[in-house]
Amino acid sequence: MEIFKSLKAVYSGENAIFNHIALFSFIGIMVISILNYCYSAFGHLLMGSFLDFVAISPLQTYLFLLLGIMLILFLTGFAFNYAHRAFDENLSLPELSLCCYTVFLKMLPVVLVWNIYSTVGFLAGIVLPFSSSIFYIYYSLYICMIPFVFVILVLFARDFKYRKFFFNPFSIFKVINITLGSIIKLVLKLLLLSIVPVLVVFLILHFAQLAGHQSLKLGLKILGLCVAAYSIFIIQALFNIETVKIIQKYSDKFDIV
After folding, report:
1. Gap between the Cα atoms of 75 and 91, Å rounded
2. How far apart are CA 70 and CA 101, in angstroms?
C-alpha cells in the first residue's frame, strides 16, 4: 500500500530520529502549555478530575497560553512546509526551523478565509430543526467536506501563490468532483492506520489509572495526551503527502486562476 511507503518516508532520511524527537518535544511542550492554561483558567469545569496541576499565578497562566499559541502556529507552518516539500518528492521530515512561521504567514489569508466559510457553513445548519433528519444529513455532509478543505490548503502550499481559486467558496465543489473517490479511499486508509496509535494511547491512559503514585499517574496521563497529539500530527502529515500525490495525478484537471 502506498500509505505504508509514505509512512516509511516520514521516518526515513537524514537526522530522522533527531527530527522526530524534536517534533515530539515541541508537541509535548505545546500540550503541557495548553493544559496548564486550561486547568488554571477553567479548573475542573473542563477536565474534571482527569488532571491535577499545581496552581500557578495569572501571569504564568497567560505565559503558558502565549507559548501554546506560538507553538500551534509554528507546527501549522511546519505541516504545510512539509506539504510544500512533498511536491518536490522530498518526503522525509524536515528540520524544525523558524521558517515555519514564514510559511504560516503565507498560509494565513487562505486558512482564515476557509475557516470563515467553514464557520458560516456550520452556523447555517443551526436553523434546521434538531429533531429532523435534514439536520443530521446536513452536518454529516458538512463533516464529509472537511477533508476537501484541506485539499485546497495543500494545493495552495504547492507554490504559495494567491489566486482567485483559493478564495472562491465554490472551488470546493470542483475539488470534490475531481478527487472524491481518491480522498474517500485515503480517509478510510488513515482511519484503519489510526487504530494502532489509538490503542497505544488507550493503554497508556489505562496504566495511568492503575498507577498508585499521583505523580506517576499525572505523568502517564500527560504522556498519553502527548502521544495522541503527535499521532494526529503524523496522520495529518500522511494525509498531506497522499493529497499531494492525488493533486499531481489530476494536475491536468485543475484549472486554477
Report:
1. 17
2. 9
Closest CA to 197 of 31, 49, 7: 7
- CA dist 75 and 69 (Å) reads 10
122-127 long-range contacts, CB within 8 A, separation 24+: none
**3-state secondary structure at position 117:** helix
User: pLDDT (tens digit, 9 = 90+) per residue, 191-240?
Assistant: 999 999 999 999 998 888 887 777 788 888 889 999 999 999 999 999 99
Are the CB atoms for 220 and 145 separated by under 8 Å?
A: no
201: CB partners within 8 A, 6+ apart: 224, 227, 228, 231
Contacts of 141 (CB under 8 A, 6+ apart): none
Cell 467553514 belongs to 118
Contact in structure between 247 and 8 (CB atoms under 8 Å)? no
Question: What CA–CA distances, in Å, run from 106 to 24, 48, 79, 142, 161?
Answer: 24, 39, 13, 26, 9
Please give the Cα distance from 143 to 116 (Å, whole number).
Answer: 15
Model confidence over 96-105: pLDDT tens digits? 889 999 999 9
Amino acid (1-letter code) at residue 133: S
Q: Where are the domains of the chain?
A: 2-252
Integer Cα distance of 226 and 30 in angstroms:
9
Nearest partner of 98 among 75, 117, 116, judged by Cα: 75
pTM of the model: 0.90
Is residue 172 within 8 A of residue 149, CB to CB? The reply is yes
